[in-house]
Automatic annotation (TrEMBL), chains A, B:
HTH hxlR-type domain location: 7-115
GO MF entries: DNA binding
Keywords: DNA-binding, Transcription, Transcription regulation
Domain of life of the organism encoding this protein: Bacteria
Protein name: Helix-turn-helix domain-containing protein
DNA sequence: CGGGATCCTTACTGATACTG
DNA sequence: CAGTATCAGTAAGGATCCCG
């Protein structure tokens, strides 16, 4: 992150970038959903429903749709009986892996800090 | 991230860790607020209000309070006329720097991808 | 300047039931 | 199984005014 002297002027660009990320990732569930898919590589609707504690199918459906629109995940209908749908991260979605890992580590560290 | 064969069992622990992080960081503004303070080291209320586009003073006030409760930031009242209040990251809050940087980079990359 | 209080609108969300 | 539809409650957020 070697940041030049432009620091003196401001960080509008960085702030904008963070906002851009959050526009897509914010919301109560998105990160958790992406994590689920990321950790398992491929994941079905009902599996994600179990991974993400507390989410309703209505919300999951909606969030998955948004993630698909933003090209972070791919949706594949499998020809099973009954039907099943598989989600996986796109190449672009995979670039979030670092962030997921950071959040996982930070969550663990934070929990230790709180509990003791 | 060398993950052992425990993969086969599941990733409940990691999922939980991510959720723990998000419980504290989610919300439309928190990450942006932390970024502002992080990038400038010390930042006053009115400055953050300008950095975080679109936030209202009511929301900023509320979010800052929550971040303070979670020990991510410190609040210092400066003895100026009129009064001013400075916020800075705690040691614990500083551990979020990696995540902020990742989000910044990802935001820039994502924008390039979308615009072309 | 840094908020708090009030009011009001919209977005988010869960529960439940239903369909291909 | 993987959603969709409807209903209704809660919470998030904005605008405005006020105060030390």
């Amino acid at each position: 992150m070697s940041i030049p002297e432009a620091c003196l002027i401001g960080h509008k660009k960085e702030m904008r970038a963070v906002q851009d990320s959050m526009d897509i990732l914010s919301g109560k569930w998105k990160i958790a959903i992406i994590s689920s898919i990321c950790y398992y590589n491929k994941r079905r609707f009902s599996d994600i429903l179990k991974d993400v504690e507390g989410i309703s199918n209505r919300m999951l459906s909606k969030e998955l749709k948004e993630l698909e629109i933003n090209k972070l995940i791919n949706r594949t209908v499998l020809d099973t009986q009954p039907i099943s749908v598989q989600y996986e991260l796109t190449e672009h979605g995979l670039t979030l892996k670092t962030i997921i890992n950071n959040l996982t580590e930070w969550g663990i560290a934070h929990r230790k800090k709180i509990i003791g």
